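Quick log. Single chain, no ligands specified.
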Amino acid sequence: MPRFPHYARRTAQLTGSVFEKFRSKMKQKGYQLVRLHIGDTYLHPYYQLPIHDEFLKKHPYFNRYCNTYGVERLRKVLVQKVQEDNGLEIGVENLLVTNGATNALSASVMALVDAGEEVLILTPCWPFFRGMVKMVEATGVEVPFYTRLFEEPDLDIETYLEQFVSDKTVAIYLNSPNNPSGKVLTREQFRQIAEFARRHRLWIISDEAYDGLTFDGREHLSIATFPE
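-> predicted structure:
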């Protein structure tokens, strides 16, 4: 049961490539290394490319693979963004650039949820997430939530969520600002969700794709800023 801090069993089955034992030697070679193991090349194509000379001078290695975590310069800018806007105390080593939010969420589900387990999905929600849970042969337990908070702002969230959790529950998916309801969770509402997750040792998958879309002086909060 991969509840926090344990990951899904499939992650333990991932092994390094046959090139792992050569990692240190490969690193010493730097850009002089001919990276045939990933189909890379240290030479430019022999024919003329339809690219401006100025670009080629500025980006001499544009035809080579970048760091699989993402372009370092971009990652540094993103770290600055989440530090300043979201209050997260992270470094470049904590950040992975993905091919959009869909890739990020599906990778998270693959890493955290095993077949036969359950994920609490606070609804209404982005419908693709349900499919991601199904893809790992897990069950998404839908919890009517955001519109309920419009009707009952002082809802005892911890007590409410207890009726949906089981011994198979390993994670909870939340989205604030929420699509499609527009609900922005308050600090107290986040605190209760964090406390509930901590007590049951649940992973929290926090979808903050709309963190800049807050109005009327409302504050966007990242649940990762709460204790533990």
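The chain has a mean pLDDT of 91.
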